[in-house]
Structures are given as structure tokens and as C-alpha cells.
Amino acid sequence: MSAIPQSVAAPDPAFVRETQAIVDRERQKSLMLRVWILSGLFFMALPGTLLGFSNLMAISTHHGLGALSPAWIQGHGHAQVFGWIGSFILGIGFYSQPAKGRSPVRLPLMCFVLWTLGVGLRWMANIYGWHWRVLLPLSASMELIAVLLFLSAARRHKLPGPVHGGAPKPKIELWMTTVLVGTAGLAATIVFNFVECVRLALEGVSPSFPHDLDQRFLVLLAWGFLVPFVWGFSARWLHGFLAIPRPNARLLRLALGIDLAGILCGVAGPTVPATVLLALGALAIVPALGLFRRPQGAAKVQGIHRSFPFFVRISYVWLVIAGAMSVWAALADVHGGIWGASRHALTVGFAATMVFAIGPRILPHFAGIQALFSKRLMFLSLLLLQTGCTLRVGSEPLAYEGILAYAWKTLPVSGVLELAGVLIFALNLGARLLWGKSAFARPANIS
Question: For residues 90 and 88, what is the distance between their CA atoms, to the nearest angstrom?
Fold first, then answer.
């Protein structure tokens, strides 16, 4: 007697529709993230780094800052930090929020338009000076509204409540607390920027913050926004990526507390105590994250260059250097060279290196792309960035402070190397985001 073949049960149509809806939401979220990242790459490469390179060439030619408008320097910094890093953070933040029950694109797209226009108008006001009394408060208003929209959306992303049966509600993890501190720093920086842009429009004589005010703004921007964000994501990802023990919670809280104390001092005015505290916080975070502890296994370098662990660790060496040089600058800087080198060590040596290293590891995955375009280009971009940053940080104090005249000749070389590294990074990541095949395949319809 022959066996009777069993029929395969048809899938439930409701289940198929729900699966398709989930995949569609994820596809839309990943495409929206691609838009954020591509915008960030644009601001990084052109209004940011290319303008910074132009500024550096002018400074090297005239052997000082005298011939360069402060508005140009501030326009470069705004495009780099808000246009590049800010776009990356807002894009990842929206991507990580659940979209069930609402459009995954509408609010992020509204925020994207406001944020991008705000950063672009600020760049125009600083560089061209065209109707800057209107453009400065307008751009600051757009950035403020965009951040408020982001915070409003983030409020809906809550931890699950207590489970029936008496189980306690889960606590916020320490890495999340650190990221929330960075989010608060972003909001405070944007509010600070808005207030001062309005004041400049009413009372100022040029589209640039006065020097003393700019010093306080940069403390809040760098150590209140950038640093806690990088620390938080480091605490979340690096123990898994580098196969090292989990962060030491007590040391991480200590480092964060010292950093906050340094920010308060820096914004209030006392420069030397602020820089000492910020340097101590930078020292404390390294053992807190356990970056130089013995790995417990092999680092996860699938899809990226195997040098990834080295560059992640070297970025935190730059953080310590930045903190130490800020103390030196507070005590001995005369012409701005030590301050400039300290900030460059922080923004390029620390923050940019982390983005160049971590970005290729996580962004293709978040954006629904299978892998990075080229591992070798990833390594080359990091190598060029590190070489250029080393020359810049080493030469700037020597040149600006009149210690070694030959250092003026190495500054342009550092700019060329960093510009090349930035363009290669943008090409490597941007090419994959533009032409990479999406990993979110639409399920086949079941008849």
C-alpha cells in the first residue's frame, strides 16, 4: 500500500500580512537611516572637513589666526559636530525607537528636514555673512525644534512595566544612563546655541560668538555632548566587539560624575579646575571600560578590517591626550595653539576615530546592508586620519606658540592627510549606502 502524501498547511493570511508589515516598517526605518547617514557624510566631507582644510591653509600661510574670521572657524565646527555627528546620532536614535502603531518615517523625515536646513543655514550665515541676523536665529530655531521632536519621540520608548506576579520593573542600564546624559548635553548645547544666536542677531556685530563665550560653549559641546555619547555607546558595544569584560559600573559612574563636574566648572568660568576635572574623567573612563584588559576571546571583526580593535583603543589614548593638553592650555596657552591641539585631539583623535572604527561595524547592519564596501579602504581612512591628527596635534602648539617655525610647514601636510582620510571614509560608507542591496526582502505573497 503506497504512502499518501501529506498536504502542506497553508500559512495563516493574517500572519503573512503581519510579517509583511514588520518587514516594511524595518525597510522604511533603514532607508530613513541611510538618508540621515548620507546627509552626515555630506556635512563631514564638504562644509566640515573641506572648509576646515581651507581654514588651515589660510592659517599656515599667514602664520596665525589673525587673517581668518572666527565665523569661518565656528562654521566649520558647527558643520562637523552637528551636521556630521549630530545627524548620525539622531538617525540612529530614530532607528532604535519602536515604530509599531505609527509611521516610521513621518516624524524622522520632519526632523531631518528641520535639522539639515538648520545646519545648512548656519553654515551660510557663518561663511557668507548673508542676512546673518535673520539666518542665525532661524537656523538655531530649526535645530531646536528638531531636537525637541526627537526628545518627544524618545519619550514613547519606555522600558516594559513590571510583569504580573511581582517581578520588579527592569532598571535602566548604565550605558543608557550615559547616553541620556549625552542627550541632555545635546539639548543643553542646542538651547545655549539658540539663546546666543538670538542675542547675536539683536546685539552682535558679526556672526560669531565672542571668544570667552565660545570657550564655554565648546566645553558644553565637546565634554557634555560628544564625550558622554561615545562613552555610552562604548559601554554598550565594546565589551562584545572586543571580547573584553563588561564595564566597571562604579568606575564608569565616577568618570561620568567627574566629567559633569568639569562641565559645570567650564561653563561657569573657572578654566583650570574645569580642565583638571575633565582630564581626570578621561583618565578614569579607560579602566572603567576595561579597554586594555586581556581579551576573553577573539574580537568580532566580521565584515570590517581586522585592525578595528587597535583603532578603538587608540581613540581613548587620544581622549587622555586631549584632557592633558587642555590642562596645559589653561596654564600656558598664549596664541591658541595648545587649545587648538587639545580640541583637535578630542574631536578628531577621539570622536572621529571612534566613528571611523565603529561606524563601518554597525551602520551597514542598521541600514539593512550586508557588508562594508571595502575593508582595505576602512583601514586606509583610519591610517590617514591618525597620521594627520598626530602631525596636527604635535605641530600646532609648536607653530602657534612660536616654539618651532618649521612646524608651520607640517600643518598643511596634516590637513591633506586628514582630508584624504575623511573623503575615503565617506566614499567607502556612502557607496554602500547608495548602492548596497537591502537585507530586508519582501516576503513572497501566499496565494
Answer: 6
CA atoms within 13 A on the CB side of 329: 27
Could you give phi then psi for residue 259, rounded to 5 degrees?
Answer: -60, -45
Of 33, 14, 99, 31, residue with least CA distance to 440: 31
By CB neighbour count within 10 A (0-12 exposed, 13-18 middle, 19+ buried), where does 167 fall?
A: exposed
- For the chain, domain boundaries: 16-155+185-208, 223-447
Torsion angles phi and psi, residue 70, rounded to 5: -60, -30
- With beta carbons less than 8 A apart as the criterion, state whether 286 and 316 touch: yes
CB of 105 closer than 8 Å to CB of 92: no
What DSSP state is assigned to residue 170?
A: P
Q: What are phi and psi of 438, to 5 degrees?
A: -70, 140
Q: How far from the centroid of its chain's Cα atoms is residue 42's Cα?
A: 14
- The model's pLDDT over 295-341, given as tens digits with 9 standing for 90+, comes to 888 998 888 999 999 999 999 999 999 999 999 999 999 988 999 99
64 is written with which cell numbers?
596665525
Q: CA angle, corner 100, sides to 95 and 103, nearest 5? A: 70
For residues 172 and 417, what is the distance between their CA atoms, to the nearest angstrom? Answer: 42
CA-based R_g, the chain, Å: 23
> Residues 68-108: pLDDT tens digits?
788 888 998 999 999 999 999 999 999 888 766 566 788 99
User: With 0-12 CB in 10 A as exposed, 13-18 as middle and 19+ as buried, what is 155?
Assistant: exposed
